[in-house]
User: Fold these one by one.
Assistant:
Number 1:
Amino acid sequence: MKLYNVAILGATGEVGREMMKVLTERNFPVAELRLLASARSAGKKMTYMGKELTVEEATEDSFKGMDIVLGAASADLARAFAPAIVKAGAVFVDNSSAFRMNPEVPLVVPEINGDDVKLNKGIISNPNCSTIITLMAVKAIHKLSPIQKLVASTYQAVSGAGAGGPIELAAQNKAIVEGGEIECKVFPYQIAENLIPHIGSFLDDGYTTEEMKMQNEGRKILHQDTLKVTCTCVRVPVVRSHSISVSVYTERDLTVEEVKAAVAKEEGCLLVDDPASKKYPMPKDTSDQDIVFVGRIRKDLAFENGITLWCSGDQVRKGAATNAVQSAQLLVK
Amino acid sequence: MKLYNVAILGATGEVGREMMKVLTERNFPVAELRLLASARSAGKKMTYMGKELTVEEATEDSFKGMDIVLGAASADLARAFAPAIVKAGAVFVDNSSAFRMNPEVPLVVPEINGDDVKLNKGIISNPNCSTIITLMAVKAIHKLSPIQKLVASTYQAVSGAGAGGPIELAAQNKAIVEGGEIECKVFPYQIAENLIPHIGSFLDDGYTTEEMKMQNEGRKILHQDTLKVTCTCVRVPVVRSHSISVSVYTERDLTVEEVKAAVAKEEGCLLVDDPASKKYPMPKDTSDQDIVFVGRIRKDLAFENGITLWCSGDQVRKGAATNAVQSAQLLVK
């Protein structure tokens, strides 16, 4: 079996650490694993497959000899290091938003448009986490009849804001239980026992950058330029796993039965839809795994040709780390 | 000034206690206040306007001499006591779901269809809490152009399940912080750091009774029989105030500017919509008051003639107690 030299750029963050875990779980054919991070994290020790590795500072010279670089850093760092990665002859599978809408860069959810990895010119982009989870949940529907429109409201976990999110939620919960001061550093307002309808930056039309990703990235992933999406993104006091309430409008009218049957057979999805037994997707159940749970499937009552559903998936795994490793697996297959 | 004898049926519950507070705040012209509850609560002392009152067991004889009975009990109890209340000559302003869809009973949000109280034959119904808050947020739009359809996803606080909801959330949060057992009595699953897409009972078509209220009650309140609503109701770990992400589709196309201007002038609403200054509705800010906060107003991107917005309101107050007292105020005006 051919082995590959793999680097993780941003190895010490939430997604970087998860990438290391997913590489192990999936028994990725790794020759050397190189852990790269900022100067601040250089020297840290991390364990991979029982071996202790030392985190190195990422520099332009860090990528020589690498076959694959998994990007778990910011968009700015991704942009800064991409030329050096490509020049070194590695393929950069980047989780940041830096290259997602670049027409030269495939934007891949392996179960949906895995073939697009072949079009890469050195960079493959990982989509936004809510977009991945929503599209995973509706892809069975898209195969039955092309999706025309989506109306989505997200319920996004604090870990979507990085490793600091869960720490801030835990500290605020502790302050509420024990009667201390509430501190807000990661989120603009208290998130414990609150909801913040603000993820990303606001655009002139009132949408956030995060909300527009579902339409912009959805079009590219589904190869459907006319897809129209209205999305409202909300941060909720959940540690891990994003959930989405979404109405899906298709070209032809679908029955609930055929949608349920299609979701049940779909790769990467689990149909959790038995209301009588109180079975429906919940973030508590989907955390720390790769499967997107799909349930509450019913006919939309507002518009024709609509199906309304609810889904939950771990955005650090399928929404980020796992999706990137899956793209890397397609590269080496 | 004429004074009225008022009873609260279910005075010791979350909504009943809030009704007493709202009567005080609004300086309702009360002659006698009679606090009624189950045998279990009889004998409890509660304070109203500085006077100590004793809770009495509700029986068929409890309503003699009363002018208004505010109902904060279950639908079953409302149905059981309604004949005695009407026979005693009182008007029953009931917060339960018992009579909402009864064609003989007006279903009233005072700021929307206050005139309907005049049609009462002894019973006035208070709508569902999420329905009240959503309709309060969109009524300015309805006045600009009749609403045809709504696609709504709710983020409902634990206090919507009664006084036990916040106690259960607090106990679960404490268990998470201190490392104890998570107990679930009020909710079917852990609600702390989780989301439960299940409020009410499931119907054959996959919707819950709670989800259907927005369409069924919305039609009656707005006097719009053709209104179509798709709603997904989700319990979130927030103590108080429900929030709703809603897309509103009207007969004619509206601009964001005219909608914002209309909401800003609307009774019972506060326009909180200045993204550049991070101003948007949040449940933390709307709790313990009567105003529904409306923000994130923007053009819907999926369908024509659509406006998408986000709103938050205290469901124990405007969603229940305040709305009932407001109906009573219209009765005595």
Number 2:
Amino acid sequence: MIASNSRFQRLRLCAIALLCWVSFAGPVLAQTDPLPSWNDGTAKKAIVSFVKETTTQGSPKFVPVPERIATFDNDGTLWSEQPIPVQLYFALDRVKALSPQHPEWKDKEPFASILKGDVKTALAGGDRAILELLMATHAGMTTVEFERIVTDWIATAKHPKTGKRFVDMTYQPMLEVLAYLRANGFKTYIVSGGGIEFMRPWTEKAYGIPPEQVIGSSIKTKFELRDGKPVLTRLPELNFIDDKDGKPVGINQHIGRRPVMAFGNSNGDQQMLEYTQGGGGARFMLLVLHDDAAREFAYGPAKGLPDVALGAFKQDLYDQSMKQGWTVVSMKNDWKQVFAIKKWSTTD
Amino acid sequence: MIASNSRFQRLRLCAIALLCWVSFAGPVLAQTDPLPSWNDGTAKKAIVSFVKETTTQGSPKFVPVPERIATFDNDGTLWSEQPIPVQLYFALDRVKALSPQHPEWKDKEPFASILKGDVKTALAGGDRAILELLMATHAGMTTVEFERIVTDWIATAKHPKTGKRFVDMTYQPMLEVLAYLRANGFKTYIVSGGGIEFMRPWTEKAYGIPPEQVIGSSIKTKFELRDGKPVLTRLPELNFIDDKDGKPVGINQHIGRRPVMAFGNSNGDQQMLEYTQGGGGARFMLLVLHDDAAREFAYGPAKGLPDVALGAFKQDLYDQSMKQGWTVVSMKNDWKQVFAIKKWSTTD
């Protein structure tokens, strides 16, 4: 039985190979631009040169396939994060959905303000308010139940300003970089301050990144038998914060290798880029600067752009980037297209 | 430049494909037994049947490739763990190596007994003694330095009874299962109570399992600049214990999918197998019973075998296996060969 199965697989491989041989004969694919949504400029050139140098056998910068690890921040690097990160919109919607079961929220912050529609006052409580909000909306259910809640929400939830679904606000140029790197043997990872379980239900369809290549912040879970069924229950207790100096820690914990390429957009990514560069040899570090108010949002405060509470790219990080030779992408000048061309679909 | 690189890769693929086509024409490979070190019996049959059912298109138990996750305990499942786990031998050797820098150890347990060669007394302090031993030998250096220490040690360290190197005491039948599963689209993971950073330096060469597919217990690390260089320093503080009900938690944290197959050998693996089975549908659970005193070690205490301090397979777990339909492997009866046939080499 094994023999016939193995035989079948070999036959399939050979069929694919013959197709490959036929297409190799044609010149079309060989001339395709892997990054069509990028304007020709130093950023695009830097990406393409680096990939060529690290994947060409015999090149002094050649990197073997198993070591081709590329890590990407999510919020602000792969999709929009303004005026507040998508996961916060999710939490606000969950407060509204759960409020009938929590009459006490009417008199308790940050819930009272959220239920009145006053997000600004709700978030004025800072980290403590956000933490309370996250625990009330992200814990208490099993991991399977939470996955279902996120999956249902993300399929329709829209950005209040653009009217687009959040999943349609991924960045086309970055989707092209992800695909280009994978085509060249790189393993692409998300390394985000956002919740690991909030991202995993949709990253495969949105970015081609499977759950096991998503690293993020997390709350604790507990294994238990519920009605005789083994489940993991989500506890209202922080487990790990995958931001700033947590990012190198998360990368080491999950991957156990130092990245060769790292992509971010804010001061929360600084240590990930430093850690990547610290490996020596061929390394590539990139930061996206949001300077395109017309097509997306403009914020820094680097280069005099408006300051923001979450996702700031400060001037000192910009100066460090210039000094260290990191690539800084101007969304305005480097990107022909901002948002994903193809609409996100659960049936993809 | 990209075009020529892409062209080169296509050419390589086609060359591989032509070789494949030639070998397909021959009947030899198609008849190869994927598990030659397993005696024909219920265990071998169960493994082969399950793989066939879950990988045959159109089968009611078909599992898509991305969901083909197989998790393996390490100590006692993939290599020997008696009379004490290999990582403890490593810790004992480190105490001896570090003792000149720690004159105070002469009067302090568990170090004093270790330095006198009395391991039994040293470990009589139980979990507390082991924890102290691990922290003294596994923390204080960078992750890169620790990797080097492990790599150097594992290349030569030998088992006191068999005289074999520990890396040559991996189990040939399990190496065959790992290779067989990967050939059928399964992603193989280690999920061990052992230290994640102790395993990663050698699992790729020993098992074909890369660092990012190793899950284990860990201590905390801290990102910092040391002499201006960004490093992760290992702290003497527990981070996560990947044993018993920690195994499903670790699996969810690292993989984000429920395994389809799970392999273990002790009560420390019970919850991993329960969690795997709890996914419903096609699932495969297996436990190795060490009942071969002549070729390896015999311990349970299931089925009246001698009891052990670490790695016990208790009677209640055996009874649960029978009740739940888990496969229990008798090393004595199911395995033709116990230890790896090919010697481990750093140059493989």
Number 3:
Amino acid sequence: MNMAKNNENQTLLPEPTIRRLPWYLSYVRMLDHLHVEYVSSTQISKELNVQSSQIAKDLSFLNIRGKTRIGYEVRSLLVELENFLGFNRQHDAVVIGTGSLGTALMQDHGLEHYGLNIVAGFDVRNEVIGKNLGGLPVFDINELASWQREHHVSIAILTVPVERAQETADLAIASGVTALWNFTPYRIKVPEDVVIANTSIYAHLAIIYNRMQNTYSDNRQG
Amino acid sequence: MNMAKNNENQTLLPEPTIRRLPWYLSYVRMLDHLHVEYVSSTQISKELNVQSSQIAKDLSFLNIRGKTRIGYEVRSLLVELENFLGFNRQHDAVVIGTGSLGTALMQDHGLEHYGLNIVAGFDVRNEVIGKNLGGLPVFDINELASWQREHHVSIAILTVPVERAQETADLAIASGVTALWNFTPYRIKVPEDVVIANTSIYAHLAIIYNRMQNTYSDNRQG
């Protein structure tokens, strides 16, 4: 079943599918580097440990069809995946909270290859306001609203201390941000029309500790 | 139902529960800072947008019981959560791949409050080998096996380029590491007895982009 309406990515994809597509992309990018021309879902399945029927289903959301016996053309699959995932379109973002994680994200040019264009940082600390981090300016958080009137950035990356998480999110949303990428362990409440994704690095640590104690391999990836 | 055998965290917790416990912890830490003495599951429910029956179920894994009408003692809940999640025990780790993300993790002393003690970095690049990052030494990746014979670190944090992910994981496992925290978008294959947790920041970006296009709020947290 192909639920994709067009290649502009208008479909609300199931989250497990969205989680798997970047695995396919990273594998296909490697194949492309090695000048491999075709790849079958069986090959992807063997490499990534995902059932090939699942791969075929996931890829059915894309505007691409594999050829019998030959499989998918690597270059086309690469382009379709990047396009579908939005990695080849530029999405402007601000980092709020320029501590060590926020600074790392501002300096990590690898994110640009995934369509994320960080344009500025915001903070409350006088010692960083007015400075440059990774070539990007850091402004006073109190200037966010007025700054946004000119820049209309849609994504705010939250790397503030946990006790500031909700108020900072509220501030960002009031300034017109429509998506939050939350790196704090706090469960932020947002209005229905605001997108939120949580990168819960502390939850992942808890999972590691728990699984280590049980010497059990959790191969579910997430 | 209380599946917890004791407070040494011997139970293989359901992953959704492990993901929620750090939210409770961050809220309870805030209450403790504010010198609040008791909190009910209704209060937690209202604050974190999780059903109170779910909260009671999640907390039943811990050695703590709420009192009727009063709720949970904040300080006890805090200690039990930290203990249960393993955040108050020290887990030694190495960072493999000291690029911008790896460096940020080595410099982020916040992780210590979650039981993660990074002791060294490893890299392939001559320009960083022998240097210090965040007060920690960076060694040649080829020295990992011999270094491990003395240090027996159990966790390897993988922040290498995606095309090095699998080989680096294999090397770390061969050196005696029993848990991998994978920050690459590659789906690493590991033996059954090795724990792996994936922090798929690229998948989270894809989710943000997809949800933004659909102006749909995905409040499922993860």
Number 4:
Amino acid sequence: MEKKRNLYLKTMPVEEAREKYFDRIRDIIEIKRETVDVIKSLGRVTGRAVFARYSSPLFNASAMDGIAVKAEDTRGASETEPLILREDQYAVVDTGDPVKNPFDAVIMAEDIVETHEGVRITASAAPWQHIRPIGEDIVAGEMILPGSHRIRAIDIGVLLSAGITQIEVVKKPEVAIFPTGSEIIEPDGHIEEGSIIESNSRMFENMINQLGGVGHRFPPLKDDYDLILEKVSDAARRFDMVIVNAGSSAGTEDYTVHVLRELGEVIVHGVAVKPGKPVILAVVNDKPVIGLPGYPVSAYIGFENFAAPLLQMMGRRRESINETLEAHISKRLVSSLKHKEYVRVKVGRVGDKFVAAPLARGAGAAMSLVRADGFCVIDQNSEGIEAGEKAVIELYRDRREIENTAVIIGSHDLILDIIADMMPERYPGMFVSSTHVGSMGGLMSLKRGEAHMAPIHLLDEETGEYNIPYVKRLFQEPTVLIKGVGRLQGIMVKKGNPLDIKSIEKLADGRVRYVNRQRGAGTRVLFDYRLRKLGISPEDIRGYEREMTTHMAVAAAVASDSADAGMGILSAANAMDLDFIEIASEEYDFAVPERFLELSQVKAFIEIIKSDEFKKRLEEMGGYDTEGSGSIKRG
Amino acid sequence: MEKKRNLYLKTMPVEEAREKYFDRIRDIIEIKRETVDVIKSLGRVTGRAVFARYSSPLFNASAMDGIAVKAEDTRGASETEPLILREDQYAVVDTGDPVKNPFDAVIMAEDIVETHEGVRITASAAPWQHIRPIGEDIVAGEMILPGSHRIRAIDIGVLLSAGITQIEVVKKPEVAIFPTGSEIIEPDGHIEEGSIIESNSRMFENMINQLGGVGHRFPPLKDDYDLILEKVSDAARRFDMVIVNAGSSAGTEDYTVHVLRELGEVIVHGVAVKPGKPVILAVVNDKPVIGLPGYPVSAYIGFENFAAPLLQMMGRRRESINETLEAHISKRLVSSLKHKEYVRVKVGRVGDKFVAAPLARGAGAAMSLVRADGFCVIDQNSEGIEAGEKAVIELYRDRREIENTAVIIGSHDLILDIIADMMPERYPGMFVSSTHVGSMGGLMSLKRGEAHMAPIHLLDEETGEYNIPYVKRLFQEPTVLIKGVGRLQGIMVKKGNPLDIKSIEKLADGRVRYVNRQRGAGTRVLFDYRLRKLGISPEDIRGYEREMTTHMAVAAAVASDSADAGMGILSAANAMDLDFIEIASEEYDFAVPERFLELSQVKAFIEIIKSDEFKKRLEEMGGYDTEGSGSIKRG
């Protein structure tokens, strides 16, 4: 072939080239999925959201070494009037051991004295003290990981605890790499003047593997137009991406651009970057084919600018980075001078500051490792951190992910899991984080600038109106509601309703073991309101003082027969296969300061709850009304 | 066995426990090495320094597409008086093609016009223009990677370019993991009340793999004293480290601490950390054995606090982190508005600021990728960055490594490679970075606060004294010299000295092709001084204007016959198997501001050059006098 020069006339800025090329690729790439063993899934990216198969703990478990007792047997015990428990009134338990019926409390080993008559106790035990209720950490059916999540070692532990041994992940993109050039030789080849040792392809191969792809490096190809054409054409059928190295500049033997024009479409040839100008971005057989320059530094920069982000897009993977950042602690953390303490925190960027919300502090709460974005370490010499103070957070999640996360704090609903699952799927790189502190807790967080949105369902007793009166009363700054869903509240009971519970009155008969929600939860507000209206005193409800923080935890307690009834939403009852006695229809909305409506993650959030897919998924769960979801309600 | 409780009375602060345990372990662990293929070495840690087998380029190579010419044939060509080169006066070359004798310059394709008589040129070519001299990027025998360096994709490319296909790396630590507890079951096992799904060991296994070790997870062991004793005893023989999970707290069935006391020595039991108090740090058969608590969060924190840093110590590996930092640019960077530019920089922490020194900007300089700590990206809309201005650096080296690096800028000597190799070996976590800009350049960098030390060999013509007069003259701030080495300077010529060069006078005979060092280099100062003393004009030296920046590059030019002679040190001549005509004995010392003498990396540096091992290695190279090396010279 005649030597001819291949001068490109103008070059395109990097960002423009990337945008142009990626816009084209986005439409044609196909995310493939495969199933792998959880124990081999480190670093892989979840293909879909993963839901727990089992609860953890699987049973009511002792949180201490000690004895399991019936709380009512201990009533009246005190320092001055100790009680002796006979052998049939207690069972020795270690931490993690099941606490079986009829026992419903644990007394710590330190607080008992063994005598020949039995065990002496000097204080009464509160029902459910020192017991980790079934599902405290993970509730069966609960979402453990969203889709597009890169699996960490801690996630593997929690997946296994939740009974998941196999997992659907995004398939690793397979990339063919062709070194070209008649002068290049293998590193162990025979060297003569003019030889260039081929090394770029090995660098690419390793960069691809590091980015979660699979690099397939082919032996060097001679500068032969037909040979290169044949090989690239074949590879564009068999692989997800092809890299052709060298032959992308304007030298006389640089065939790559001609080959790619013949085989497909060259989107960009030459970018305004130094080093690394001679880059070719093409599409062949609906696959991305990238021509990179031969000089090692240009090759590296070209790869980093185009191949690396493309691979991440195809593999739904972002690099994970361990770093630290300073964040404002959202609630007071008291710590003892006796030890250094590791508090798991969720971190969000709200406005211009990072906010770290402490999570459950128990050592058994494995899910808190998964939910957390990092640790706040409280020094042994420190008594703690005041709310609003800054502290250093050791992140184990990517800071960029945190910056693109919609921070939701408030009332719990299963639709939050669905939104968290749909977000990164529809808007790659964006996430939802939700923390469940009840409706009032959510509004307080919003006021303190710790969240973007607060999901609430608060009935105003005076007006009979939901949510708006609370927002008006509490906020000075312009704050609106994003309409969420209408949903059914009721009493959840075991399948077949064996105690024949038909109304709230029945819960006060002294036999039904009730399990309550925590103060500030909208469900608790509703329950208390109904009790007052019916003239029933909380003392008449057995188990009123036993509080759970989510609908699913209440449902799990009923399902496992550690309670007979609890208030909750229809979807939670359905998820746990419980019967449901409808009590009220309520409005579950998202309070949001107006200035946050412009944030891209909030916009994405609104688009999701307006979408048909969202409505379809809610229909499948049952109990939701999605009319007007996503519209803005002003007071 | 009778149920008994195993109360530990006091707990130790984390840092104290770690220090106590690691002090004990440091004496017994043995760094094992193995040889692997370079293409499979990603993420591994070099066992020793790696030196180049070949130079890169392997020959004088064209840096442009164009024609290779003899510079003297082009003399006089201009716009008004163009010259025609006949077919035998040039050769068409592409970028990377060899430029063979007698050609010694390249003219770019854009600057020539092909006519039927020959090629028309309108400007003369300077000798060696647009030629990448042999060894420009890598010189055979030069150190490519120091020991204890974690291998990146870019390193693999450069290793292969330098002819290295196999590499000695630190062997991955092998860790046995034993889950224990009669109640635990496998994730796919039969679940009954009281069952706990075993998941910590899988979390550990993956954390170990991520940290560069190999996790071997054994099936769960029942709570049986003799069984646990047998398994742990056997594992402590076969593995580098053992983790026993659960059984480390004070529960009734927690045998681990008793087993470890019987088998070996328990150094720490219980640390002041929450969650994660019940940790056992022991030694069995000279191997670390760690007992970790069963609760997942405690297990995670215990692992991160003790097992993770221990593994890194054993594997000589630190986590790599990609992050950005702000640094002061040490020299003006001019960039064109035509493109975005990636400038490789070396980053150092000097005093209280980070300083980024730009490296070679050529696209062919693969070693610059290895030497660099990151990129400074100059935006397409920017004309560049002024010296001293702050710029954002995208790091691809760990920031902590950068903070523990002694930054050396100045004259080049092979002993710098030896120090860089010895530093992380003798002082794990500490590094030396050296940039070669000549003696005067080094002193200027020191003055601008860009380096900790400047290696210099500057003869004061007035006093005949080396180095001290320059330091006195240039520095206001108290600055001293760390005595380096005495070394021999001379003329390097080809083996057998075919041109019979015996003195500097001979270099002026008009036939000898000389290759010079850059202005400001001590060797250049010495050469110019001798020329003046001999009354020889630089114009009489053929090749005086051809400048190289290191001794090794000069030696490589002579060895490859692209020059006949050059000034340099004996060790460089020996490394390239050249003959050597001694000219002077000189003093090569390190200028250092007094306040830096307190820095740990400077102290470590001094200890190294005082050490017997250092002296022994210099003796092997020849040409060095190490008397008094490491002592402080004040003016």
